[in-house]
Structure formats: structure tokens, C-alpha cells
Amino acid sequence: MLSRTADHLYWMARYTERAENIARMLDVAVQTSMLPQSQADTEQAWRAMLGISELQQAFDASHAELNETNVLAFMAIDPANPSSIVSCLTAARENARAVRGVLTTELWETLNGTWLELPARVAPDGDPSAFFDWVKHRCHLARGVALGTMLADEAMVFIHLGTFLERADSTARILDVKYHAVKESVTAELLTQREFYYWAALLRSVAGFEIYRKVYRDTITPARVAELLMLRADMPRSLLACMEQVVSNLKAVRNDVSSDTERQAGKMQAQLQFARIEDILEAGLDNTLSRFMQDVYDLGNRISRDFLVPLGA
Amino acid sequence: MANFFNEMTAFAGSEDGPVREHYREFGAWLARQSDERIERKRAEADLAFRRVGITFAVYGDGAGTERLIPFDTIPRIIPAHEWTALQAGLIQRVKALNMFVHDIYHDQNIINAGIIPARQIYQNAQYRPEMQGIDVVSDIYAHIAGVDIVRAGEGEFYVLEDNLRVPSGVSYMLEDRKMMMRLFPDLFARHRIAPVEHYPDMLLENLRSVAPGGVNDPTVVVMTPGMHNSAYFEHAFLAQQMGVELVEGKDLFVNANAVWMRTIRGPKRVDVIYRRLDDDFLDPLAFRSDSSLGVPGLLSVYRAGRVTLANAIGTGVADDKSIYPFVPDMIRFYLSEQPLLNNVPTWQCRKPEDLAYTLAHLHELVVKEVHGAGGYGMLIGPASSKAQIEDFRRRLVAKPDGYIAQPTLALSACPTYVENGIAPRHIDLRPFVLSGKTISMVPGGLTRVALEEGSLVVNSSQGGGTKDTWILEE
């Protein structure tokens, strides 16, 4: 397979996943903002939202006031923001269009259909939650159609790599930012009401609230939330689950120069697999997460260099 | 109105006469169909084409404009004996054209014999001095030709132009057939229609047959200028149908006197490039240095015979309206045969007497730019306003050797669905002729139809449509 083809497939998947994750985060943020809280807390929450995608500067450059309407418009539908949902879905479609011969007709039509419907969905007086639901649904659909119709060959491997690397990054970011907001409660056994809603919202944003209940059958504690999102292999959005997928997919496309990249991914997986949440908390959750995010970033660069945009001969 | 050859009905005075033999079965079938069924089928075809994205990007019509090429459900039918004669003429013509290009880049016998003036070659922008003395595999230059054929007068076939650079449209030929079979399977049970679906296999076989010597299992790729090109759909379609990679210039690089593509498993050697972009853009080191679509160093590998380009660099020298009038002479010169297919009589405006004639008869002639294509930059005298004619007159006087003129042919017409039912519309035919170890083609080709009443311009860029083309086996 051509490197450029793999590159388009990888980014098609990353942008689809990214659009979904932004929709998830914003959806939960909108719900959380309905809880009684001070003006300062609200503003802080929206600033944290921008922080997840490292968009504070870009936002401040184009907006005078930090409020819900402005942040939602900026992160959901602003075409000038390359990380907005609209930009991500558009980029996913453009990448798909460049390699449509490699995609099944059904997958192409799904991504193209999302893009064609987008203008009607971003009506300014629309209901944000309905929009986020639609985005999540379309992304689920794209993934499902890919799995249900694509040949399980190298093309699918690069789609998986894009999906899971993006998801690992996203889960880590959500956890990291939320953690900074309620640092003091991390080791608490009993949460205040505000803290409870905070961690519950975090779980919801990664579709983890019901899973948490099922797995722990107990009250919500930050330690267990962190464990679920980082170390549980059976939690589909956890760091470990994502890294397991990255490792096995890298193995499937192993080439002459990729052994270092595989080793790096394997190391990241092993660190999660054999970690204990107590040790992580003791060493500092934020340290672990920032190292992980840096590792994901490096891994993305390595995958690019080994497979997607190889230099020269 | 009936002053042209009707493909379906014989001409009888001012009225349509009886249905021609080869349309009889279809005509009877058509008479039995309800309007509702046909309308439903037409809507089904439209939807299917749009969903699959069989579209054509239109230049100068706003960025990213994608348009469907209208598809007409009444087929263009040609009886086997007519096709057999056409095919023989096409083979003869393409054979002579290949010999001509080879001769031009080697001994130039045809110039030395005084048949074609040397300046006609050297002043041609498509002449590539880089190709002088270079041997290409099997001496084949035009591996894929899309020869435009029209029918005029009493039904005689004429060659309108020989498209030897990057002729397009074959994907529509294949998709139109697929669509007809899907919409009206009953028709295919009633007729013995020669199949065309094996074109991609023939093309791949043809491309593999011209790989550089010594290559056992050649790697073939289709090279596209990219997704913004008007024919991108076709490029992707052909690559997919042949099961080969669709590459852009940036996917290829030159190293150790060979061409390689960048794959996820490392560099892979490329032997045959079916390129769908013009010479000018192939190699920024040799041709247009501002081209970001090409591969630096490609020409040098090509000249060394270590990669095959289809079509060959410099083939365009034979695909030019100023060379067109000489094709019958080429056939006589190289093959010692009489041409089987007619050329359209052509006035070469570079000649003073031809220019004078043309200027005096602008209102009845078709005037074309010698390097033009796609229906752009031409004048159709009878259909033009006084102002348009005067504008062309000025251009002709300013640059006579940039133009040729031909009589306005009364192109044949085929019944076609239009707003108020069925009416005759003018058509042409583009068979795709493949040259490798042998010359081959699938029966028929792409039929294009001018959808506007009286219009003679069938190009898709000018609002033309397409029809399925049936060669009826006997």
C-alpha cells in the first residue's frame, strides 16, 4: 500500500475520532453547566474545556468574552478553528475523498453523507445536545460501517491505528485537565457534592458512568475513576485498551524500520498493564499523564516517519 | 430538421421512415414500455450515479464544482458488420500513427519524402526534442488512443480527431453498460450485445506487455494529477478495476536510475506508469519547473528505458489538428494501404489560399484551434452570432497557423430522452484503441450526445451526455 494512502486513512480515522471526542466533552460540559455553581466556577470550567485541546490562545485571540455560547461556537462549528467538530468532520471527508478507491462504497457514502448534512445541522438556533448526539452517532456509524464492510487488510490497520492513538490521547487529556481542576480530591474517599458531579461528568464524557457502576458497584472515588480510564483493559476508551490495539496493529504492518516504534508502543502498553493505581497516584497522576501524552505524540511521529511520510529513498 | 442521418429510423422524405433493422427489436420493446416505468428507471439511474459519485469537475465554474454527466437510457446500436469495418479502419489508423511518431523521433522519412513539412513538426508545441533517437518498447507510443468518430451525410463514418495524449471517458463507457444491465436486464436477454466489461483487464494486459525488457512481473501504476482534476473519478476507477496503485507525483521518486513508489513496506520499483497528465507536468527538471505534480528525474530514467510511460512522451506531436490532415498520407506512406476511414476535409489556415477560403465562408464552417481540445476555443459558423464570427475573423487574421477549418458536418442523431419525450440528438463515438504487442479494443466505445436541440458539441464540459453503445453480434 502507498504511504500516502495509509496516511489519508490514518488521518481520516483520527479526525473522525477527534470529532466524536470533542462532541462528548462539550456535551458533558453543557450538562454540567446546568448545575448550580458560581460565575467563577463556570468560567473556570469552560476555560478547562479549551485547555483540553490547547485552544486557550486561539480562543482569546478571536473572542472578547469567555462564556458558554462563545466556547461552544468556537469548538463545535467554527471553521476557522482547525480543531472544531466541523473542521474535523470536513478533514475526515477530505482524507476519505483522496482515497475513495480504497474505501468501500458504503464507508465513503457514510463519511460523505455526514459532510453533506453538516450545514443543516449547525443551525445557529439549534439544540447543542442534539448536534452532539448526531456527531457521536455519525462517528459510531462510520466506525461500524468500516468494520462491517472493509476487508481486514492493511487499510483497516491504519484506520485502527488512527482511531486508537487519537482515543488514547483524548482520554488522557480529559483526565489530565479534569484532574487539575479538582486536585485536592484525588485521594479523597468521600467526595463533596460538587466533586461527585465533577467526576461523574468526567465518566460520562467517555461513556464510562454505567461501566463504572457495573465494574465497581460502589461509590465514585477519583482513584477508581483513574483506574478505570487508565488501566482497565476491558474499558474501550481506557489508555490500556487503546495501547493494546495500537501494539497489535503495529505488529500487523511491521516493516524494516518499524521495530523501534513497536518497542516504544509495547513499552507504553506494559507500563499501563503492570501499573497499580496507588503507585500512580503516589507518584502524581499528572506526571504519569503528561509523560503518556508526550509518548503518544512521539509515537504518532514515529508512525508517520516509518509508514506514512517516509523520507527519500 | 431531418437533414441528418438518424441512427434508428431510415429517412423518408420529410418524415421519419421505418425503424432500421438493428433497432427493430429495441423499438418494439420501447413501444411496450410505459412512460412511468422509463421515468422511474431514469430517476434510479440518476440517484445511483450521484451516490457512487460518478461526477465530472467543471473547470472555471467555481472551485470544487462536481456535476453528473447526463446518462440517456436509449442505447446507440451499431450492427456487427459496420463495427467490423470501423475496427479495421481504427487498427490501420492507430498503427500508422504509432509508426509516424516513431519515424518523427528517429529517421524522419516522412519529412525527407516531402510529405509533411518539417516546420509542421518543429513548430508543434507537442514535439519533444528530448525524445529524438530514444527507443521505446515495441516502438509503441500511443498505447491508449481515443479516436473520435462521427457519422455524417448518408451515414459514412469520419474520424474527427485522434486523441493520443490522455483520452478520457472509458469509465463512462463501463458505467453506462453496468447501469443499462441493472435497469433493463430484459433488454440484454433479447439482444446479443457484445460485452465491454473486460476493458480493464485488456488495459492491464496491454500495459504489462510494454514493460521494460527483462522485467518478469511488472508493477503497473496509474498516475493522476490529483483529486482536483476533472477526470479524477476515472483515474481512481481504472486503478481500482485493474487492482493497481493510484499514485500522485509525490508518491514516486527516482533513485539509482529507476522509479520507486513510497509504500508502507518501503520503496517499491515501478515499471509501467499509465500517466493521466500531460508531458509538461511529468518532470519539473525537464519540462515545466513549476509543476508540483511530476517526479524530478523521471525523464532521465525514461530515456534510459528503465520505465515505460503510457502514453509515451512526445506522442502529442501526432495528436494535433494541424497534423490531422496528413493522417491519410501517413497510412499510404507507412502501410502502402488506402485509408479505410475518412478524414473530414480540412482547410489549413496556415496556407494563404485555405485562409482566404475560410475567411470567406466563416458562417458555414467549423473553425478550431490547432492545439485546442474539449470543445473549448472553437467556432461553429452556422450556430454563431455575427459578433462571434467577427471576433474569430480577427483571431484568424492575427494568427492563421493557429487554426484549421472544416465543413459543418450534419452529425448523425440518435433518439434521446429530452424534456418533452423522445427526440433525435446529435452523437459521436469514441472507441478506445489499445496498442501493445497487438492492437486491440473492446467492441464499441463511448457514445456522447449533444443534449441541446441542434447542438453539435458533445463534450461533457459543454453539457453533453452519454449513452450505452451496443455492438449487436450477428
How would you describe this structure to a colleague?
The complex is a heterodimer of chains A (313) and B (474). By secondary structure, chain A is mainly alpha-helical. Chain A contains 15 helices and no strands. In chain A, helix 2 runs antiparallel to helix 8 (154-181) and helix 6 packs antiparallel against helix 7. The model of chain A has no long low-confidence stretch (mean pLDDT 90). Chain B is an alpha+beta fold. Helices cover 30% and strands 26% of the residues of chain B. Chain B has helices at residues 24-32, 35-52, 80-104, 109-112, 118-122, 170-183, 185-190, 199-209, 232-242, 298-303, 327-335, 352-360, 386-398, and strands at residues 9-12, 15-19, 55-57, 66-68, 71-79, 144-152, 156-163, 220-223, 245-247, 252-255, 258-263, 266-270, 272-275, 308-310, 342-343, 347-348, 365-369, 378-380, 403-407, 413-418, 421-430, 432-435, 439-440, 446-450, 464-472. In chain B, a hairpin with an 8-residue loop joins strand 3 and strand 4 (66-68).
Numbering strands along the chain, what is their spatial order in the largest sheet of chain B? 5-25-24-21-20
Helix content of chain B: 25-40%
**Regarding quaternary structure, how should these chains be classified?**
heterodimer
Number of β-strand runs of chain B: 25
What portion of the residues of chain A fall into strands of 2 or more residues?
under 5%
The SS-based structural class of chain B is alpha+beta
Query: Largest interface here, residues on each chain?
Result: A-B, 25 and 24 residues
